[in-house]
Write a structure and sequence with these properties.
Blueprint (H helix, E strand, L loop, with lengths): L40 H12 L15 E4 L3 E4 L7 H6 L2 E8 L13 E6 L12 H13 L3 E5 L6 H13 L4 H11 L7 H34 L2
Helix pairs in contact: 1-6, 3-4, 4-5, 4-6
């Protein structure tokens, strides 16, 4: 597990990154809805993500490349279409493929020299995709550590695969949900995790924040104890 301190990140350094313009504080979702009902912090955060990060304001007809390079030079995101061109997979130096679909891809679509992980999941707001976060993150990180490239795909490269890529960026690259979504959308404009998956990502983000806080607190206590023993 990464030990990098979270929440002290500089502005994302992404080539050709054009993040959506976030509204001024006065335009952000307030603590109450139009009906006067109080919003809990998670609901407020989800509304802001949907309204200001994932809302499509302009019509985009350009089809993204399959697969799309979404982070650094090793993480690709796409749909089943990404598996149809073996020559391209070889040219992209893909060494790992993570399939997050309901039915596993046909065996003839996965080259024998590529490490493959299949995770059964339905693109449904009630589906517990969080159960796969740790396994998926470790698989993606394994590809990076081995100097390989990994393709994470679902059917269309919009919801399920995006969710797992988000979880990875949050865990191993100290990004918040919002930062991860901006990163991915700058490279693949059609990403759109369903509302249930977004909620699970926000809860996972809170879990990671707590873990990093506890780790930092423990490290500080150890340093204080060592200083006192000098």
């Amino acid at each position: 597990m990464a030990t990098a301190t979270r929440r002290t990140l500089p502005t994302l350094k992404v080539k050709q990154l054009h993040p959506p313009r976030l509204p001024s504080p006065g335009k952000l979702v307030t603590n109450k809805t139009n009906t006067g009902r109080n919003l809990d912090p998670i609901e407020k955060r989800l509304l802001n993500i949907r309204l200001h990060l994932l809302r499509t304001t302009t019509r985009r007809t350009q089809t993204p490349s399959e697969p799309s390079l979404v982070f650094d030079s090793f993480l690709y995101l796409g749909g089943l279409k990404s598996l149809s061109n073996r020559v391209r997979l070889t040219r992209l130096k893909i060494t790992h493929i993570l399939s997050i679909v309901f039915i596993p891809p046909a065996k003839n679509l996965i080259p024998s020299n590529i490490k493959h992980l299949f995770l059964k999941a339905d693109d449904n707001i009630a589906f517990n995709i969080r159960q796969y976060f740790e396994q998926a993150c470790e698989f993606i990180e394994e590809a990076r550590q081995s100097k390989g490239c990994v393709l994470v795909h679902c059917v269309c490269g919009v919801s399920r695969s995006t969710t797992l890529c988000c979880a990875y960026l949050m865990k191993y690259h100290s990004m918040s949900v919002e930062q991860a979504l901006v990163q991915l959308r700058s490279r693949r404009h059609i990403i759109q995790p369903n509302n249930g998956f977004l909620r699970q990502l926000v809860l996972y983000d809170e879990q990671l924040q707590k873990e990093h806080y506890n780790h930092d607190k423990t490290t500080l206590n150890v340093m204080i104890e060592q200083f006192e023993n000098i």
